[in-house]
Design a protein that fits this description.
single chain, 470 residues, alpha/beta, Rossmann fold, 2 domains, 6-stranded parallel β-sheet, 17 helices, 19% strand
Length: 470
């Protein structure tokens, strides 16, 4: 079997002790690299005054890791700039805070070129190269320029924006053209794939050749939806670990005679945290008889603190949680417990199991693995209820959740009231359907479907000259 080279912006090698990131990307890639021999390549997370291209090689939990330090200007322009101030807000439909700065784009191109030059010597002729996320869209183009002919796949973990939004990006055509240097491009959902196809067919006169291939810019690329999953079996095992059980006992003791609602999200404006707090506030107003029966725990680890938009949302959430507690708290009860701290996966498993409601309400999300982890952690005999945003990619395949519009405080309030009063039989029925799908469509299924598609491509139909015109 060919080696697999995984490339991502940040490399988080698996520790195997339950301390992995809350985010799904690190866990998914770790699972892939445990199965396939190869290399995980990316940024070390460190900066250097001058880029040297020196590789740091190590082996962690059976995974070969190769990292490179970035120049300080790369960090500012490529990562903090184009990735986090331009592409991230644009792809999450936040035109109001999207920054268009030519230096950001130049830094993005430069960093991807440097990644390619550093990675090139590690690639052997039969390797499969799997590149991840919006930070690295041009990487295949840069590797092709260096003579790499290997099969290369790209997976986008975040949403692909609508055509009307994409065209607001300066040099949007060049960015999309770079995606046609891949052999396979994967999206989280059919909806994001359709948005990509709409851009290609409407903006650059491309066309779909068959169910799996799109032609444009004189090239053909295979495309598909590959919804990412969680390691459901592992998470179900973790929930019975000593630390998870201890965390469950602590949460159960602190919520005795009350039902806990839990949200777990990285502190980010795309996660709908302000709207979630307002929805919970509306629930307290609408349901005075249920007020003292609930506790809302929001865990929101800090992220990207150097970006102004993240500092602003933290200040607004601090104010909102204080206002809600000030209005509704009693001497022995605060309705909101808001925590800016990172917790281990096994600790989160205990928290999820203790929660009657999992509240997952992003304004826009590629998939959202917290929703799937919440389901995997539930007690089969007395499961909780998932309240899920219709704008999370996970909503496409988790219809047994209570689906809400996160922009509507009324819908969140009504869903919370229904979830908290739902009979056990209905909770079990909904959970069983969700759990079965989470187990079938797990991280191994995602990994294998993408890698198999990359390694064994079907033959596309011949493109017409019009379809291949740039």
């Amino acid at each position: 079997m060919s080696r697999l080279i995984v490339v991502s912006n940040r490399v988080t090698p698996p520790s195997g002790d339950g301390e992995e990131s809350v985010g799904g990307l690190a866990m998914a890639l770790a699972a892939a690299l445990r199965e396939y021999s190869g290399i995980w390549f990316g940024w070390s997370g460190r900066t250097t005054p001058e880029f040297t291209g020196h590789l740091h090689m190590s082996r962690v939990q059976g995974v070969t890791v190769a990292t490179v330090d970035l120049e300080e200007a790369d960090l500012e322009e490529y990562y903090n700039g184009y990735a986090n101030k331009t592409l991230w807000p644009l792809f999450h439909y936040r035109l109001d805070i999207t920054a268009y700065d030519r230096s950001f784009g130049e830094g993005y191109e430069r960093a991807n070129r440097r990644f390619a030059e550093t990675l090139r010597p590690l690639i052997e002729p039969d390797d499969l190269v799997w590149i991840h996320d919006y930070h690295l869209i041009p990487l295949a183009r840069e590797l092709r320029r260096l003579g790499v002919k290997n099969r290369m796949g790209f997976f986008l973990h975040i949403p692909w924006p609508a055509h009307q939004l994409m065209v607001t990006l300066p040099r949007h055509r060049q960015l999309v053209q770079a995606m046609f240097d891949y052999d396979l491009v994967g999206f989280q959902t059919d909806g994001y794939l359709q948005a990509f196809e709409e851009y290609v067919t409407s903006e650059v006169d491309g066309m779909r050749l068959d169910d799996e291939h799109i032609a444009a810019f004189g090239k053909t690329v295979r495309v598909g939806a590959f919804p990412i999953g969680v390691d459901a079996a592992d998470f179900s095992r973790i929930v019975s670990s000593p630390r998870a059980l201890r965390t469950y006992d602590v949460m159960a003791a602190h919520t005795v005679f009350r039902k806990m609602i839990v949200g777990v999200d990285r502190l980010d404006y795309s996660k709908g945290l302000e709207e979630r707090f307002l929805g919970f506030e509306r629930f307290l107003v609408d349901n005075p008889e249920l007020r003292r029966e609930v506790l809302f725990l929001q865990i929101a680890p800090l992220s990207r603190e150097s970006v102004d938009a993240y500092q602003e949302i933290r200040a607004r959430l601090d104010a909102l949680s204080g206002r809600i507690n000030g209005e509704f708290a009693d001497i022995d009860w605060n309705p909101v417990r808001y925590v800016n701290k990172t917790y281990r996966r096994d600790e989160l498993a205990g928290v999820y199991r203790a929660a009657r409601v999992g509240l997952v309400t992003p304004l826009r999300d590629g998939m959202n693995l917290v929703a799937k982890e919440y389901i995997a952690a539930q007690n089969p005999e007395d499961p909780g209820v998932l309240v899920l945003s219709r704008f999370a990619g996970a909503a496409d395949r988790m219809r047994e959740a209570l689906i809400v519009n996160p922009n509507s405080p009324e819908e969140i309030s009504e869903a919370l009231a229904r979830a908290l009063t739902m009979e056990r039989e209905e909770r079990i029925r909904r959970w069983r359907a969700l759990f079965d799908r989470v187990c079938r469509e797990d991280v191994e299924s995602w990994r294998d479907s993408f890698v198999n598609a990359l390694a064994d491509p079907p033959r596309p139909k011949a493109a017409t000259p019009q379809a291949l015109a740039s």
